[in-house]
Amino acid sequence: MDSTPVNWEALDSIIINFAKSEHLIEDSSSGPSSPTSSSSASSSPSSSSSYRSRLLILQIRRNIEAGKVDAAIDILQGHAPVALEDHRILFRLQKQKFIELLRRGTEKDRDCAIQCLRRALAPCALDAYPEAYEEFKHALLALIFDKDDQYSPVANEWSERRRSDLAGLLSSILRAHLQAYDPIFSMTLRYLISIHKVFCLRQGISSPIFDLTERLLFEDRDPPATSQESLYDSPPFDEVDIQALAHAVELTRQGAVDSLRFTKGDLFQAFQNELCRMRLDFSILDELVHEYFIYRGITDCTTIVSLLEPDLSNSYISRFSDGEASINNVGTNGLHEDNADHGSILENDSDMRSSSDMMTNNEDCSTSGTSRMQSCPRRLRRSRYEASREERRKRWRGRFDTLERTSDINISGKGNQQVVPSGSVATGDKYGKDKVSKSSSSFNHISSVDIRKYETILEIKELVSKGMAAEVVEEVTAVDPEFFTQNPYLLFHLKQVEFSQLVNSGSISQALKVACAHLGPLAARNECLIKPLKETLLLLLKPNEESLSKGIPWSTLANTLQVAMGRRLGVEEPQLMKIMRATLHTHTEWFKLQMCKDRFEGFLKIDCLKEISVPIRDDATAKAHADNSLHTSSQVTTSSSNKLGEDISISSQASSSENIYDENAILKVMEFLALPRADAIHLLMQYNGNAETVIQQIFS
């Protein structure tokens, strides 16, 4: 799982879109601004509308979970009155309001509860749904039995679980009405993790990311949004759609039918509704994204500084938010040594820059990771790289839970309304205040030496991306003289690129020197490099610019070098990269077992994440991962990988029989026996593809 290739550039794009949609980042080029104004400018109007709608739903959810039903109803009346036109929802809200008034326990609130019964709850019970009046009479028992009586007939009415169920149901309904779906990345992550869990459970495999997935994706889901139409009507839906939805998001067949009925047969909208019912821990997700952004160089260094040194003076913090000049100070110098006090950082910042630039390459450098990063000359701290890098970087602003004032959320079509809801999203602050909800960061352990390591690796990665192969080898060797001894494959690929560049520029003699000095000896020590060496030498016959495009893409080589350099310098890979590798691997293997193509992988951009045109040789990647996994993977995981290999070969053999059987026969067995697709196909294989025979044998 750890060696599965992933298109990290595609993942960058998807996650950046996620961060923009959730207003987690702002462009560093936009200059300092308030959180609300910068977030509004960072996304399109439609994205901003969806963001505000999600905040609206979040606020309603939190009000109901806190027992503030009146506040939730006020928000619904102002922003989404169509939800209250559904008498089923209105009845449940009024019933919960009645219970919450009784829960407060005062005489005044008890009188209000009785008034609620007379004026709101009883009228709603008459036409909400057939069972509503019986539920109404049952709720009256709460007037007699105490909330602390666990054995009372209405103990379930008093349960706070009712709050979360009602909040989840409203969230599902409003999400569909407002089209306030989560960004693609969060839906993709839900989908991949859910498949990963099912695959590992079914195959008896120990997941290498079990702890992460358990904390990230909750087991419980929001209740589904259901249509008011009769549930007994025959569904006019294609059975292929029903089964695809049922197995994609683990629904019963009836659950898939109900979901499609709610969306009037729109398969992909139903799929989104079901995915968004799965609950993510967004505080953990934000940390994972933040960690990934720092590792990939998407977020600027000011984020790390503010997380590392929370006690720095305000004047120092402001220096790193005043635009490009202050950012370049960080990018040019890094930070001082760990024992430097804050005052010396402020006073000697410019001295550090000049002294760093004047250091010569003849200084003695230790081969140990930390000492090497502290004493080696910062050869890469050059202004020519800084400008382009900083222009692309984003500033991390974190998640803001406060609902912004808006007049375009109303979905009733009855004109613009602005309502200032009572209550709060999280802490009781009044509507409209900018209350920041910051999750605890996982970067508090990063030292100034670690920051310099991050910057060094990112700068080397940038050199690779620009095709500066010779400079990369020089800079990497200066940082770590033993690096290419431990990673000969990477050296070969870099020298291969350098050879191609020299040939294309007409410097044949220089190209041959590179081949004799590096490519030949490397291939002699590694037989698997003989073939690529021959292919490289063929460039001498017909040099052209297109030859470079046929080799390893710059981005792939840059990513591989970044990971390898990180390991050598003690910079851990982001946990999100581990999650994506493992879940994309199990996604591929799961659909091999299902013997079909995933209908939703294009919608969730999973196909883009798997698009690796010419990956680095498997032996090089496997070697790089094996060196590290020996220290981190358990024997259970290793043995499970062996089992996984057996399962893959079995599924590959079975997949050759896929086209023998009619799709209708497969669906018939799946529907009648409530079986997964793979099991249905295996049964058909036993009975020559005859669905009727399979069903008769099972029920006989």
Q: Give the overall shape.
A: elongated
Q: Percent of residues in beta strands?
A: under 5%
Major sheet: size, sense and barrel closure?
2 strands, antiparallel
Report helical residue fraction: 55-70%
Radius of gyration: 30 Å
Mean pLDDT: 74
- As residue ranges, the low-confidence spans are 28-43, 303-385, 404-445, 618-659
Q: Please tally the helical runs, counting DSSP H or I stretches of 4 or more residues.
A: 38
Order of strands across the widest beta sheet?
1-4
Instruction: Give a count of the beta strands, DSSP E runs of length 2 or more.
Output: 4
Counting helices, strands and paired strands, the structural category is mainly alpha
Span from first to last CA? 42 Å
Biased composition (Low complexity): 28-49
Domain CTLH: 53-109, 453-510
Region (Disordered): 26-49, 334-388, 412-434
Biased composition (Polar residues): 360-374, 412-425
Characterise the protein shown here.
The chain has 700 residues and is mostly helical. Among the domains are: 46-178, no CATH class; 658-699. 63% of the residues lie in helices and 2% in strands. The strands form 2 sheets. The chain has a two-stranded antiparallel sheet. It has a two-stranded antiparallel ribbon with strand order 2-3. Helix 3 (45-65) packs antiparallel against helix 4 (69-79), helix 3 packs antiparallel against helix 10 (161-178) and helix 25 (469-479) packs antiparallel against helix 27 (488-504). The longest helix has 21 residues, at 45-65. The chain starts with 7 loop residues before the first helix and ends with a helix.
